[in-house]
Design goal:
The structure holds 2 protein chains of 2 kinds.
Chain A: H1 2-5, H2 10-19, H3 24-37, H4 39-44, H5 52-55, H6 59-62, H7 67-74, H8 83-93, H9 99-110, E1 118-119, H10 120-131, H11 139-153, E2 160-161, H12 163-170, H13 176-179
Antiparallel strand pairs in A: 1-2
Chain B: H1 2-13, H2 35-53, H3 57-71, H4 79-105, H5 109-119, H6 121-153, H7 162-168, H8 180-189, H9 216-249, H10 256-263, H11 272-303, H12 306-347, H13 354-386, H14 393-421, H15 425-460, H16 464-469, H17 476-494, H18 500-522, H19 532-560, H20 578-585, H21 589-599, H22 601-653, H23 673-681, H24 685-696, H25 701-706
Helix pairs in contact in B: 1-2, 1-24, 2-3, 5-6, 6-9, 6-17, 6-18, 6-19, 9-19, 12-13, 12-14, 13-14, 13-15, 14-17, 15-17, 15-18, 17-19
The chains are: A mainly alpha, B mainly alpha.
């Protein structure tokens, strides 16, 4: 902690605190974690851009089936994550981030092809990633699952979930907020 | 509404910075140039920028810096506005300081994170609950200091000879032995030397604390009442929060699958093997849900035949009668054991010799042991029986839990009733003390001697039997029920053993570490997933119900019980609550008449009627809100229909004949897709206006920075067929 303390001026910390849902202590902690991914690079430049592979070494991300999507959504440049991107991510996943924010990012994480809609192809991808490798779900079961989901959530029958529909259905999903977070 | 506001503020941000200090606050917000307002406006702009509408932190930072630049030389605020602004700033500083303090001071934060990484959010909810109960107990402990601290300071104890104690009850004698073995035994039973300490009711002297005007009897009574009230307040806050969350989140069964797909992945997991299990459990759950669907459909089909329906309902009635019988039998068993143990203890109270003393100990512990054993065994029976009732899986869990809760509370109720019929306060206190000790021993025993060895055997020994038995499982409902039950014991014991909260604090802390050991070392992550959200809510409600049930006997004791004449703080009164009324009598007449007025039926009746009216009003309000939300849902559907209709029109207009696929993978710029969606999803008039405004307000610098490939996301249609502003 001591080392990263000096990494930021009070002003910077103030700004970060205003811009995220984290407190200064948490921000320093996040930086600590960021630095632990690649000590040398971060020592040279506290806002160093680390490649995706390095970021994925973070234990929470390492095991996450949607890690590539998370990277894509939070990276501002598309080819790596700077500390600010990283902080942004931790802020969204923190306990203090309000639900609408989480929902919005979740939508983008689950929207694999980035067409602003969670289509049945996206759903298929989500399910197969959730259930893991060799998931043992038959094609028929998969199709039935997708149908079930669409039946529940797709209010306008266009075979895809728009953000409004997603938000609506997540607002009724009690587990979402408690699971969509990373503890600092 | 909120999104609308956000829109407006971004249209501001899009104005180029060179407008500088004289910047108008956007066309749709005239008159925002005055300083105080602008100052405020600046704050809200930054706030909205923070409110996540900007996708990446780096960009939000730019927005903020631009805001700072544009603010230019700001004149100082004067007068009220300046004071208000300063206050606001100070308040925010304070809040931030408090937040960071909370973060550092969060007890067991690290342990919780570790457990969470291993087990996921469900199990952690148990530990959070435990921590919360610890907080309750610490509060109770602080309150009880008003009883025992004065007693320590001004002790004028006349409860030293056996003879005084004898007058406390006819059927009980106190023997104080000095040999080591008995001392230990006494510690576990709360008898002997322990009986004459501050642990129990009998020790406390009456209102005549020598050399002080401290009215201990009154303090004793008030502390007991305050303990209950403060528990209620602490719980009330928590229940209200969880209740609100659960109502907000109320899955009405129509979004089961969505919840499972979008809500189950636990982003907190860090452990690879836990993840493997999580994958498995999700798969298992999805499949079992589909089976459940099938099961329901099948049952419905089957139940259309009247004879089958009849059979099922008869079965359910029979099983319920059976369970009632079992509960009755359990109650009688407890009653019988208590009377037996009381009788035996009074007959053999002068037992000598190690064997006899051990036997006496066993008999004295018999009620506690019976209750604990019944609590352990009957739930297993309930689980077996419930299969015959053909409920859905979710309901099976619930009804088994409810039956178990009922069993636990019923056994406590029997204990209380039996004890109170032959009440001697300290004796009642001792019974609860024993129950608490037994309960704690069970926790230790279960963790150290059952769960850990079982896991060890499972890991080391690959023989068939052990693999079949499997490792222990961290059963959240059962564990939380244990906590609720123990908390009930604390509440009940409080009146007659005022030092209970100090035990409970120690016990809670030890339990935390034991359970952590059990969770981290003994139990592998469960394959059957537990839902953090639901369990929390359900258990808070159970705790609340248990609390009310516990406060009934306490109230009864104060109001209706004649206390022992020989010992205890109420020895001079014929009813405990006279401690309060005599004090009121000594007040000046105005105060006394105010007290009488407040407690008169006229006032209390009015208050009750008022509260009932409030409840009625709230329920009406709730109904109205529900109707409203249904209406909104319909509107959402209609909105979708509109969209489709428009799409069809568009297609016709553009002369395409083949059906248009839904947004053929035409990739909009990856920069900020959600912002579009958000705006499109709130098609109020205001939003549309502001969108138009924003697209007209010069080059959208902001978007320019967002999209690396130079596309402009907002203000332009995302696809040639779909003007973003119109749907």
């Amino acid at each position: 902690m001591g080392a990263s303390q000096s990494a930021f001026t009070e002003q910077e910390l103030d700004d970060y605190q205003t811009l995220t849902y984290l407190t200064k202590k948490e921000i320093l902690h996040v930086h600590h974690r960021f630095a632990s991914l690649n000590e040398t690079a971060v020592r040279l430049d506290k806002n160093a851009k680390l490649p995706f592979n390095t970021i994925m070494e973070l234990p929470e991300l390492k095991v996450n089936p949607f890690k590539d999507q998370i990277m894509k959504v939070f990276s501002s440049s598309g080819d790596g994550m700077t500390f600010e991107d990283f902080l942004d991510m931790m802020s969204v996943f923190s306990d203090n981030a309000p639900k609408p924010v989480k929902v919005e990012y979740a939508f983008r994480i689950y929207d694999f092809d980035g067409d602003d809609m969670i289509s049945s192809a996206d759903l298929r991808e989500v399910i197969s990633r959730l259930t893991g490798e060799g998931n043992g779900l038959s094609e028929e079961q998969m199709q039935q699952l997708i149908d079930n989901i669409l039946e529940e959530a797709d209010l306008d029958d266009d075979d895809a979930l728009s953000f409004a529909e997603f938000e609506h259905v997540i607002s009724k999903a009690p587990d979402f907020v408690s699971s969509f977070r990373i503890r600092l | 509404m909120k999104k609308n506001k956000v829109r407006v503020s971004f249209s501001d941000l899009d104005t180029p910075p060179d407008l500088g200090a004289n910047r108008k606050a956007g066309p749709n917000k005239p008159g925002m140039v005055f300083l105080p307002v602008r100052e405020r406006q600046k704050l809200t702009d930054i706030q909205t920028a923070i409110d996540h509408k900007t996708p990446h932190l780096a960009q939000r930072k730019k927005v903020m810096q631009r805001e700072k630049l544009m603010a230019g030389p700001v004149k100082n605020l004067h007068g009220v506005a300046s004071v208000r602004f300063e206050n606001k700033k100070r308040l925010r500083k304070l809040k931030e300081a408090w937040n960071s303090f909370k973060y550092t001071m969060e007890p067991w934060g690290h342990a919780l994170r570790k457990i969470e990484g291993h087990h996921g959010a469900g199990v952690v909810s148990y530990f959070v609950f435990l921590r919360y109960l610890l907080l309750v107990n610490v509060c109770l402990f602080l309150l009880t200091m008003f009883i025992w601290v004065p007693e320590v300071i001004f002790s004028s104890n006349d409860y030293t000879s056996g003879s005084t104690a004898a007058t406390c009850t006819a059927s009980y004698n106190v023997n104080i032995s000095s040999d080591g073995f008995t001392l230990i035994l006494d510690f576990f039973q709360g008898t002997g030397w322990l009986e004459q300490t501050m642990v129990f009711y009998g020790y406390y002297s009456g209102n005549g604390l020598s050399g002080s005007s401290y009215n201990l009897s009154l303090a004793y009574m008030l502390v007991c009442i305050c303990c209950l009230i403060s528990s209620l307040i602490l719980m009330g806050r928590n229940v209200a929060r969880s209740f609100r969350d659960s109502i907000l989140n109320e899955g009405d069964g129509t979004t089961e699958f969505c919840n499972k797909v979008f809500g189950t992945w636990d982003y907190t997991l860090t452990d690879e093997s836990s993840c493997e299990i999580k994958h498995k459990s999700i798969r298992y759950e999805l499949l079992s849900d589909m089976h459940e669907q099938e099961f329901l459909r099948e049952r419905e089909k089957r139940l259309q035949k009247r004879s089958k329906k009849c059979k099922l309902y008869t079965m359910r009635i029979v099983i319920n009668i059976f369970i009632c019988l079992v509960l009755g039998a359990a109650a009688y068993c407890i009653y019988y054991v208590i009377s037996f143990s009381t009788e035996y203890a009074s007959d053999h109270s002068d037992a000598s010799g190690t064997w006899n003393e051990l036997l006496l100990l066993l008999v004295q512990f018999l009620p506690s042991i019976t209750i604990t054993v019944l609590n352990a065994l009957l739930p297993i029976l309930f689980e077996k029986v419930v299969v015959g009732e053909e409920y859905t899986a979710a309901f099976v869990i619930k009804i088994t839990l409810i039956r178990t809760v009922f069993l636990r509370l019923a056994s406590l109720a029997v204990l209380i009733i039996t004890l109170y019929t032959e009440c001697w306060e300290t004796y009642v206190g001792q019974q609860f003390y024993k129950l608490i000790i037994t309960d704690f021993l069970v926790v230790i025993f279960k963790t150290l001697l059952v769960e850990l060895p079982r896991r060890l055997l499972y890991d080391k020994c690959s023989c068939g039997l052990m693999q079949k038995v499997g490792p222990p499982e961290f059963d959240i409902p059962a564990n939380v029920l244990d906590l609720v039950y123990t908390q009930c014991l604390y509440w009940l014991a409080l009146t007659f053993a005022p030092l209970t909260p100090s035990f409970s604090v120690v016990k809670s802390i030890l339990t935390f570490y034991l359970k952590m050991l059990s969770a981290l070392k003994a139990c592998p992550p469960a394959e059957k997933p537990a839902r953090a959200s639901r369990t929390n809510h359900f258990f808070m409600i159970i705790l609340l119900i248990a609390f009310f049930l516990c406060s009934v006997p306490v109230g009864f004791v104060f109001y209706n019980m004649s206390p022992s004449q020989g010992c205890g703080p109420f020895r001079t009164y014929s009813k405990m609550y006279y401690a309060l009324t005599t004090t009121v009598d000594s007040w000046p007449s105005t105060a006394e008449s105010i007290y009488e007025l407040i407690t008169s039926p006229a006032i209390t009746g009015t208050v009750i009627i008022f509260l009932i009216l409030m409840i009625y009003y709230c329920s009406t309000l709730a109904n109205a809100h529900k109707d409203m939300s249904d209406l909104f849902r319909e509107q959402l559907v209609m909105e979708g229909r509109d969209k489709q209709f428009l799409l069809v029109k568009l297609r016709e207009a553009s002369g395409e004949s083949k059906p248009l696929p839904r947004q053929p993978h035409k990739k909009p710029p990856p920069g900020m897709p959600t912002l579009n969606t958000v705006n499109e999803s709130t098609p109020t008039k205001a939003t549309r206006t502001s969108t138009n405004v924003s697209s007209n307000s010069g080059p959208p610098t902001y978007n320019g920075t967002t999209n690396q490939n130079g596309n402009v996301a907002r203000g332009q249609p995302t696809s040639p067929h779909m003007p973003a502003d119109d749907w």
